[in-house]
């Protein structure tokens, strides 16, 4: 038993052992903190999607290098447009580069179970980025990810990591064609 202040500064009793019963038609669920209502610490769900080892054929260093290069491209195009004084617009090279970066960061964030902005924070800047080599690496990564998803899920996953990387590769290809 513990006590807590109520709405009108009245002392109320809180029973830590109370587990509400499901109403009619409601499925049975486990309520309460660990150790209460049949929920044990060992029974907490384990995230099966998080992998300690990385995807076969794709290293963390390669993903980070792609993130660094995409962020550098996006930054360079944004700086170029701001120097020209045109300002941010849709369907510009800076917008396309930012879209490619966002899609790739979303894919890697989905895989690593992290927020994409956390991944992009504190990345170094590279002056000369080889766009065609980056595009080739992204296309190879798409093939590896699609084959891994097909082996694991036995189907193509809509909205999966491979589709996000494919989207980023398409945006980068569009950026190269329009340059």
TrEMBL record:
Outline the segment boundaries, as ranges, of region: Disordered.
1-41
State the protein's name.
Answer: 17381_t:CDS:1
């Amino acid at each position: 038993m513990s006590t807590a202040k109520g709405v009108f500064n009245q002392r109320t009793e809180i029973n830590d052992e109370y587990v509400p019963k499901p109403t009619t038609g409601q499925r049975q669920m486990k309520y309460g903190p660990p150790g209460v209502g049949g929920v044990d610490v060992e029974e907490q769900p384990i995230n099966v999607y998080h992998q300690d080892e990385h995807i076969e054929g794709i290293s963390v260093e390669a993903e980070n290098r792609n993130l660094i290069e995409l962020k550098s491209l996006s930054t360079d195009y944004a700086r170029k447009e701001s120097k020209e004084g045109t300002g941010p617009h849709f369907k510009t090279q800076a917008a396309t580069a930012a879209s490619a970066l966002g899609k790739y960061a979303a894919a890697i964030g989905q895989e690593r179970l992290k927020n994409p902005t956390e991944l992009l924070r504190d990345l170094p800047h590279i002056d000369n980025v080889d766009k065609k080599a980056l595009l080739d690496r992204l296309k190879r990564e798409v093939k590896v990810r699609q084959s891994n998803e097909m082996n694991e899920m036995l189907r193509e996953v809509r909205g999966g990591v491979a589709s996000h990387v494919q989207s980023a590769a398409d945006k980068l290809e569009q950026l190269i064609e329009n340059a």
